[in-house]
Write a structure and sequence with these properties.
Length: 460
């Protein structure tokens, strides 16, 4: 029954693959010691992802600043890695702002985005010299008031409504943009216009290149008003691959509703493979020619003395973490089973976008006691249910093809979950503990782990 079922083998970081092969006993010990699902984090990998983006900027001779979009993961270790690698952080709340400062990021390296930001957050930003991406004329008015109260100059980016995504609720439309420029021009003692920003949905390089072209031209109009914007912020949305091209293509052609528990269907999935990801996608944006221009974006930026700012979230977390659930038991349902784990689908956020996190989880079987009979190794399909009383709480609706039947005490390792999957929707529903985050270092003679922050444990 398992031979031609759709699979989506995950890409694993080789060092993490070796860690789970050689140190399965340690992972089992941690899972039972914490008695909860676990998120294992690898900040060294984050630093390597940062370096790849920086190399691209250097190769294309573009002055650039990377701001890690903090909402993609709440862990402290990544904010600290951002501070250590000297990049900035993009935040959207006072809580995230505080976390960034605590991690050692200077206020001047913090970018603040989000719509109609609370005045408290604006005040925090102005006091700490952070860069505020302003989303509306009303907000800009409030920022002028805050700047006056604080007796300080507010550093401003104007966020543009994407020319090709007019239904977005973010950004200033062309008319509001002109009013905002006029406000900047008439409030020079409280507002310093440092540049223009945008953040697009989707993962297209050319769309970002085109919008950057629009932003470069808008900078020129601002300069005509004797303002001095020097930055184009192209936001985030750098694609990431979770699976190989051929596997993702095969999966999409093969899977059918009856490959999912309850014949569940989904409107769409994250593109689990993209031909152009991360730093490579940045390169495509820089070497692309914006619509209506005649030269690559990188050339225009250099010519006009503009620096590029980018806000990757997910792409900096590529291969920077995975999630461990413990199987509590398995129910046979005829031609497949339901494995129930010790957590909920609130910890695999894709479910909350009415979608599913598709890369195959890895089964790490419990160590076999010498007194026990060896386990049968026959292929077995199972979906994965959460430990709650909700029918809809499925960690994986798909009937995953395992090499053998999972059993109580086995572990399911969900790959590459650091970007958005871990905590954006986590909930202590049913008083179940929130998964602790453990930072794992693999650069020494043996792996070492430490707790990222204890406050995520329920009741702590
Ligand atoms: C969420 C967000 C990002 C990060 O997006 P990714 O897809 O994780 O790269 C960057 N900028 C803004 C304004 C955002 O809202």
């Amino acid at each position: 029954m398992v031979s031609d079922v759709p699979r989506l083998p995950a890409l694993w970081d080789p060092a993490q693959r070796a860690f789970m092969d050689r140190h399965a006993a340690t992972i089992h010990e941690l899972a039972s010691g914490f008695d909860a699902p676990l998120h294992l984090l690898f900040p060294e990998r984050f630093a390597r992802n940062v370096a790849a983006f920086q190399r691209t900027l250097a190769e294309r001779r573009v002055t650039g600043r990377i701001y890690y979009a903090k909402k993609a993961n709440k862990a402290r270790c990544f904010a600290r890695a951002a501070a250590e690698t000297g990049i900035g952080i993009d935040v959207a709340s006072a809580g995230e702002f505080g976390e960034a400062l605590m991690a050692g990021v200077r206020g001047a390296d913090i970018g603040v985005s989000g719509p109609e930001k609370a005045s408290d957050l604006l005040r925090l930003a102005v006091h700490h010299d952070a860069l505020v991406a302003v989303d509306s004329v009303d907000e800009l008015d409030r920022l002028v008031a805050v700047g006056r109260q604080c007796g300080r100059v507010a550093r401003v980016l104007l966020r543009m409504e994407p020319a090709a995504q007019r239904s977005s609720r973010f950004g200033l439309n062309p008319a509001s943009f002109d009013s905002a420029l006029a406000l900047c021009a008439s409030n020079r003692s409280t507002l310093s216009l440092e540049g223009l920003s945008f953040h697009l949905s989707g993962y297209g390089a050319q769309a970002r290149c085109d919008q950057a072209g629009v932003a470069v031209r808008a900078c020129m109009s601002a300069r005509a008003l004797d303002l001095a914007p020097g930055t184009i912020d192209i936001g985030g949305g750098f694609a990431m691959s979770y699976a190989a091209a051929c596997d993702w293509a095969a999966f999409q052609t093969n899977h059918r509703p009856d490959d999912y528990h309850a014949n569940k269907t989904f409107d769409g999935f994250y593109p689990y493979h993209s031909a152009c990801t991360g730093a490579q996608m940045l390169d495509a944006i820089l070497t692309g020619i914006p619509d209506g221009d005649s030269k690559p974006l990188a050339d225009s930026l250099r010519e006009h003395g503009l620096q590029l700012m980018l806000e990757p979230g997910r792409a900096l977390l590529d291969q920077a973490g995975f999630t461990v659930f413990t199987v509590q038991g398995v129910k046979d349902r005829g031609d497949y089973g339901i494995a129930t784990v010790n957590g909920t689908s609130f910890s695999v956020s894709e479910q909350w976008f009415a979608s599913e996190f598709l890369p195959d989880p890895e089964l790490l079987t419990a160590p076999n006691e010498p007194s026990e009979p060896p386990r049968m190794r026959a292929p077995y399909r199972a979906c994965v249910g959460g430990a709650s009383c909700l029918d809809s709480d499925m960690v994986t609706w798909r009937k995953v093809a395992f090499a053998q039947r999972p059993e109580a005490g086995d572990l399911l390792l969900y790959p590459n979950t650091a970007g958005y999957q871990m905590d954006s929707n986590e909930s202590p529903f049913h008083e179940l503990p929130l998964p602790p985050k453990l930072v794992v270092t693999l650069d020494g003679a043996r792996p070492r782990w430490r707790v990222d922050r204890l406050s995520t444990l329920s009741g702590a």
